[in-house]
C-alpha cells in the first residue's frame, strides 16, 4: 500500500499547482470573486454525500477497513449543507427558478463536477473495501489542498462581511484535519497493508483516474470564472498563475 500512498502524495503536489488555486490566492481580487465558482461544485459536494451514504458505507460489516470507512462516512456526508449555506451568504444563487437551477445543475458547466462522483462510483460500488479506501484517500487529499487554500479567502471575506463561511472556512478545514482516519494509528494501519500485484495495479488506476476527474472539475471551475467575468483584465488572471 505504501507505493499507492506515495503515488497519491505525488499527485497531490501536482493538484495543488492548478490554476484555480493560484487564482484563489490572488489578493488583488476581491475574496467573494475568488469564491465565485462555488455553484459549480454543488453536484460534487452533494454527490459525495450520496456516495458516503450509499456506496462507501456498508453495514453491518466484520471487515476492519469497511468499519473504518463507515465511521468516516458519518463524518463526511453532511458537509454539502455548509456549501449551500455559504452560497446563500455569498449571494451566488443566480438561478431564481427551479427549472433554471435544474438545468444548471445538470448542464455543461457542471459536467466535470458531476463526473468526479461518477468516476468514484465506478470504482467503489460493491467493491473490495481496500479500493473504497483508495478512492476515499484521493478525495481526502484533494479536499486538504482545496480547504487549506479556501480557508484564508473565507477569513478575508469574513472580515468584510462579518459572516462565517463554514464550508470554505475554518469549520470545514478543522473537520477535514481531525478525521479519525487521519490519526497516527489508523494511518499506520493502512500503510502496512499488503497488496497483491493485481490489487496494486487496480489501486494505481483508481488513483490516476480519480485525480484526473478532480483536476478536470477544478479546471471547469476556473473556466466558469472566466466566463462570468469576460471584462476582467486578463492580467489579473495571468498574475494568478505566475
Describe what you observe in this structure:
- The chain is an all-alpha fold and 242 residues long.
- It contains 13 helices and no strands.
- Helix 4 packs antiparallel against helix 6 (80-90).
- The two termini are 35 Å apart.
Order of helices and strands: HHHHHHHHHHHHH
Overall pLDDT confidence: 92
So how many helices? 13
Corresponding CATH superfamily: Heme oxygenase-like
Q: What's the overall geometry?
A: globular
Structural domain count = 1
Number of strands: 0
Euclidean distance between termini CA atoms: 35 Å
Name the poorly predicted regions.
none
Residues in helices, as a percent range:
over 70%
Name of the CATH class = Mainly Alpha
CATH fold name, please? Heme Oxygenase, Chain A
Biggest sheet statistics:
none
Would you identify the CATH architecture? Up-down Bundle
Structural class: mainly alpha
Strand content: under 5%
Rg result: 18 Å
Organism: Nostoc cycadae WK-1
Protein name: Iron-containing redox enzyme family protein
InterPro entries: Haem_Oase-like_multi-hlx
Essential attributes:
single chain; 242 residues; mainly alpha; Heme Oxygenase, Chain A; globular; Haem_Oase-like_multi-hlx; Iron-containing redox enzyme family protein
Short description:
This protein has 242 residues and is an all-alpha fold. It has 13 helices and no strands. It has one domain: Up-down Bundle (Heme Oxygenase, Chain A).
